[in-house]
């Protein structure tokens, strides 16, 4: 009843406004355009007063019409009909995103939230009342000229001298006040940090930020092996509050075997992280037999490991046992020689939805035999093989483990991303029980088993279109020749007649390719012709870093987003 009464009142108020607007239009139309009024010397004071009154009335009318224009936008603009809570969610998405520095450059910077306060009065009010929008900051040494327009949160150090200091400008303090009780996101860059007296100053700054009401709940740590002590002390300061932790660790240039490592898996997994939900580790060693017992990660939902060369599969499995019940997304990237466990033991991941494995083919073979993921919807395997005497290694063990993994997990896959694998691997996927639910396929690579990968895949998919009835997205990671593009076009065309006749086969709606590898003019023209035919059949076509906009019929820069099943997004600060 309350909603009905509000609608009646709103309609009555609109009717009154419409009547007043009509009266205003009638009155304004009755006023003729003013001719040029010149102040002549012989005119008297009464005439001057009349002219001044006209000027004043015109200024008042301009001000009123500006107010009318603002009220019209507030009343009729679609964006003004969004609830403040929804507008806040959009602002939060923007504040954690990356934007291009230049429309034609593939270089990105973090979004500046000040832009949100310059659109209109309502946006400014909502933005200032959204504390988390202002909660991202950087601490890093500055080696160049500081541009505050690029990142208002940057805390400058000196130029690397002994007189290291942390500079806080007025904008920094304003942003800190606006963040109120929101948890802070901290980008801590130790790559160019001077060793002198910077240690205590830096940790004091992190400690001071950690005492804020919301604490530090997002930490992106960029460091070197020579800065391990400072990094470990910083981690201790955020251990109780951090929810998203990303550590990018680089080497000082010496061989990995010659370096001493204060930071490794023991220093992280043997401690309690009561709120940690997302963990990303780059170049962190994980021992097979940890000297200290590991503490379970009871709330971890995303784990991304780019492990150190000395890590074995036993070390990785020790970590996976800490979070297998809650993990929803698992990414493992490795380039080491795996030592297989003596007794392969299947670990159940009941909530795992995305699995991405990058590494040598025998690495992936070992890892697949330990994972059971019945809820998996996105599978990404990107193996690369080690050639021996110019010969490709035997792919039979990998294919056997892949087939067993899909069959035993009994998962309903939606996205499959496989590169650098033979056609027989795709055959295992297409003939599995997961095939009917697959919506997106990513493929590509070099020649494997004397077969061009993507051409062989499309030939395989065309043999039985009904097996992949829900497929509507193709993504290729290789440049295409006209022959390969023609093969893709024929595959797209083969699905449309079935869909139009009512068969339960979806048409291909989205295609992403890496562009053409043609050099001859005739070949380039043929590639352009085929791409034009593709745009008439599908909804979205992306070539490299640009996409074809069908309404304007122009190519524009692709910045991610959309309703792609395989997210073609740019990386953010906290992934």
What does this structure look like?
The structure is a single chain. 35% of the residues lie in helices and 17% in strands. It has a 17-stranded mixed sheet. Strand 16 (440-444), helix 13 and strand 17 (473-476) form a beta-alpha-beta unit. By secondary structure, the chain is α/β, with parallel strands linked by helices. The protein has a domain at 432-570. The protein contains 15 helices and 21 strands. Helix 6 packs parallel to helix 7 (228-238). The model is unreliable at 157-164 and 447-454 (pLDDT under 50).
Structure summary:
The chain is α/β, with parallel strands linked by helices. It has helices spanning 2-29, 45-76, 84-95, 121-128, 170-178, 198-210, 228-238, 265-269, 313-320, 361-368, 396-409, 423-430, 453-463, 482-500, 521-537; strands at residues 98-100, 108-110, 136-139, 154-155, 184-189, 216-224, 244-250, 278-284, 302-307, 329-333, 347-348, 354-360, 371-372, 378-384, 415-419, 440-444, 473-476, 510-513, 540-543, 546-549, 554-557. It has a domain at 432-570.
Annotation keywords:
575 residues, 17-stranded mixed β-sheet, alpha/beta, 15 helices, two-stranded antiparallel sheet
Q: Helical element count?
A: 15
Task: Please give the share of residues in helix.
Answer: 25-40%
- Summarize model confidence as the mean pLDDT: 80
Globular, elongated, flat, extended or rod-shaped: what is the shape? globular
Largest sheet: 17 strands, mixed
**How big a fraction of the residues is strand?**
15-25%
What Rg do the Cα atoms give? 31 Å
- Which parts are unreliable, with pLDDT below 50 for 5 consecutive residues or more? 157-164, 447-454
Instruction: Give the class from helix and strand content and strand pairing.
Output: alpha/beta
Cα end-to-end separation: 45 Å
